[in-house]
Amino acid sequence: QVQLVESGGGLVQAGGSLRLSCAASGITISAYTMAWFRQPPGKEREFVAAARWSGISTHYTDSVKGRFTISRDYANNTLYLQMNTLKPEDTANYYCAARLRGPSGTVSYDRTYDYWGQGTQVTVSS
User: Fold this and answer.
1) pLDDT tens per residue, the chain (126 residues)?
2) How far apart are CA 121 and CA 119, in angstroms?
3) Closest to 125 (Cα-Cα) out of 99, 90, 100
4) Dihedral, CA of residue 110, residue 116, residue 118 and residue 123, to nearest 10
5) Residue 33: which of 123, 103, 119, 122 has the closest Cα?
6) What is the C-alpha separation between 25 and 95, in angstroms, rounded?
7) Which residues, including other chains, have CB under 8 Å from residue 86's CB and lie 6 or more apart?
């Protein structure tokens, strides 16, 4: 069966860094658009970053551009999110998601994703 398992969350000070991992099984991530979403306390789930199957197209929400980087390790079938210069506003539960290939214009829509991990908590203190 398909599983996406996130890890790497934790508590960090503002300005620090974390790297989140999403280990996939049951799917080969090279065939899917992969993405990270997050849900801050008391708020709706929001898009963070996505990487299309080709590996040459990435998209980031404006608030993380220049600070976060999405990447894939095809050999280990794992998705990553490198998060630098963390801010308290980045505090959220972070989710990995996968969908079959589609246009970049819809990568931010959570309803278009087929598979989801269970989340990893990131807390940034000021």
Assistant:
1) 999 999 999 999 999 999 999 999 999 999 999 999 999 999 999 999 999 876 678 999 999 999 999 999 999 999 999 999 999 999 999 999 999 877 768 999 999 999 999 999 999 999
2) 7
3) 90
4) -40
5) 103
6) 16
7) 12, 14, 15, 16, 17, 18, 67, 122, 124
